[in-house]
Structures are given as structure tokens and as C-alpha cells.
Amino acid sequence: MIDRSRIERDIRTLTQWTATPGEGTTRLAFSAEEKGARAYLAAEMEALGLVVATDGAGNLSGRLEGTERGAPAVLFGSHIDSVRNGGDYDGPAGIVAALETVRSFVEEGRRFRHPLEIVVLTEEEGGRWGAGLQGSRAMVRGLSDEELALVDGEGLSKAEVFRSFGLDPARIGEALRKPGTVRAFLELHIEQGPLLEAEGVAVGLVTAIVGIREFVVTLRGRADHAGTTPLALRQDALRGAARMVEAVHDAACSRGETAVATVGSLTVRPGAYNVVPAEVTFTVDMRDASTAVLDEVEAAVRASLARVCDDLSLQGEWKELMRVAPVAADETVVGALREAAGKLGLPTLSMTSGAGHDAMIMAGLAPMGMVFAPSRGGKSHSPEEFTAVDDLVSAVAVYAEAVALLAQEVS
Ligand code: HGY
Ligand code: MN
Ligand code: MN
Fold this sequence. Notes:
This protein is of the alpha+beta class. The protein folds into two domains: 4-209 and 326-410, Aminopeptidase (3-Layer(aba) Sandwich); 211-324, 2-Layer Sandwich (Alpha-Beta Plaits), CATH 3.30.70.360. It has helices at residues 4-15, 32-47, 92-107, 134-140, 145-148, 158-164, 195-199, 237-253, 291-312, 331-344, 358-362, 389-407, and strands at 51-54, 60-64, 73-79, 111-112, 116-121, 182-190, 203-209, 211-220, 260-262, 266-269, 279-288, 315-324, 327-328, 348-353, 368-373, 409-410. The strands form three sheets. Strands 1, 2, 3, 5, 6, 7, 13, 14 and 15 form a nine-stranded mixed beta sheet that branches. Helix 1 (4-15) packs antiparallel against helix 3 (92-107) and helix 3 (92-107) crosses helix 12 (389-407). (2S)-amino(hydroxy)ethanoic acid (HGY) is lined by residues 124-125, 132, 355-356.
């Protein structure tokens, strides 16, 4: 039986691990806050008799063998790292769901043909180094040396932080999972949008996840005295960036109903009131359910960049951080979720996810599915993020039954 009070205790405990108490959740990958949350989860998994391990990319897992040795595992989980000043549920809802699923199975003595494996995937948000979905990408595709050289806001590279966390960056390849070793991947996540609440439904069945492209753009001009340099002689990088922010918006706005594009962060150097900005670095995030639309948006933004550089005598640098294609959930996994909801008599709503999730990467390794729980006011990536525990209990119940169906219960 899914236990409401255990779910509340888990969420409350994980929420305490934040670098910004009172101002939302800030739990960056491999931070002290994440360490504290991992220790709690590892202890809870050990108490359930799971074999707890950390792979080469820092992914934490807890595994319960099935009755058939060597059978592919049902993997289920999410992430616990957050954006800065984010919410308490983005990620942790999925980890708590996985934990409570196994607790309920162990409590009821339920056994399965396939092994069950909870996974806590690292740096999903990319909040520390920019390239998100790290843990799942390490499991499915592997990470490049270039990515290990990415530095965070304190100038610390992934490789350095891995070492300080007790991981050997040279062994990151050991995180790779062989195809055929995973039966399915299931993730419970908060919707981070308004639909479930608007429909009064507690369980969302994700049919597809949008494609995402992340870039870092640097515009280089020339630092000059803000008082003595005539406007016509300036190479003002911030003027170029201002035009690009609008161009990014316009590129998405004019293409399809669902395309979105965002300049989420922007840094000006030297950043003094009396110096013409010499260099500006900003991020571009593009999303849509269609690859063709994404291609159009990307081409339009790159064309705008060339035009702005030409108009304002700037140099432009375009660096790709991440590219993930739109992905459909697997019919059998969605079917298991639908069957589970039917057994429990819970209504569901089918939907596309506008947010990216580890599940979109794990789809490259095994059939994947996602279940959503409602977000109050559709809010997320902010301290206002909230999911009512009764809604979470309903979504977890469906999720747990779907895991049981996929893992093939033995009497
Ligand atoms: O960016 C996203 O959609 C997710 O929250 N990482
Ligand atoms: Mn997020
Ligand atoms: Mn998330």
C-alpha cells in the first residue's frame, strides 16, 4: 500500500537539503546539499535490502534482484539536483515515488521475475555546468572528455568535482548500460504545467517529450570609454545581444503553435557602467515536438546572429551544449500505466511534456514511459512549485502498479 505519511516524510526530508533555505530549493549536482540528500536515500534503500551502488557518472542506484537471474531490470527513478531557487518536487517527486514503490512491494512481500532498480540520475538540470541530463546520457551514450572539462561558476571542472566526490573521471565510461540489460525505464515527474489541475485529473500519461537544443553564444565587440567613444565607432556586444534576445523569441514565435525558445542566462563583460560592453555570453534553449520546426528555429536564430554580427561589427561564437530529439513514450509502457490506472479506478489525461526529462535519454536504452502529477498553478522552477500529497499518492499508486506489471509479478 502506498503510504501517504512516508511520502510526506521523504519530501520534507529532501526539502531540507537546500543551499537557499526560505528561498526555494537550490541543490546543485555534487554539492553538499546533494550529498546530504543522497545519504538519506542510500540509507532508505539499504534499509529495504536493496544493493546500493554509485556508477562512474555518480548515478546512485538501489537494486532488488528478481526471481530470474540475468533478466533485464526495470529501471525507475529521476533526479534530485535542482535549478537555483527552484521547487521541492521537480525531481524528488520521482525519487520518492520510486522509493515508496519498493517499500510497498517489500512490505507486501511482492516478488517479480525482473530485477527492480531505483536510479537517482545526476545533473539532470544542468544547473552547475550547463549540459543537463548528464546521468542518463552517461548511462545511454557516454560523456565526452570535452564535457568533463566544462567549468562551473567557481571555475571547477566536472572532472575536478568528480574527483572531489570520490569518482574517477577516467572511469565514467563504466556508467554505460548495455542494451538488453534494461526491460523498461519509468519516471514519475511533476507536470510543471497547468493541464492536470485545469482538468481536475491527478494522473498524466506522457505520450511524447519535446526535442531540446541548448546553445551558448558569445558575442565579442570592443571595450571603449562610455563617455568619449562616438556611437558610430562602437562595437557594442550588448546591443548585439539585445537584438538576439528578440530574434530568439521571434524565431520560435513565428514557427508552429508549440515552439518555444528562451535566452535564460546572459553575462556581460567587463560589466561596468562606463565601459562599452566588450563581450556578452548567453544561452539559447529551443524546444518543440517536431524536429523540422526545431531545424527552422535553429536556422533562423543562426541567420539572425550572422546579421547582427555584420551590422554591429561583432564576432559571434556558437557552441552546442546539448541536442535531444523529440521522443515518443513506448506503447507497452504507456499501456502498463493505463492498465494500472484502470485497476485503481483513477482517471488519466494523455499529454506531451514541454519539459525535458531523463526519460527522453533513457528511451535510447529501453522502452520508456512517464507519469505526471499535477503542479499547482502550473508553477515550477520556482519556490512556488507545489503538488498536493493526495495527488502525488494517486500518481505513485499508478506508477507502482505499472512497475509491477512490467517486472512481471510471481506468486
Ligand atoms: O529543462 C527542463 O525542461 C528540465 O527541467 N530539466
Ligand atoms: Mn527541472
Ligand atoms: Mn525535472
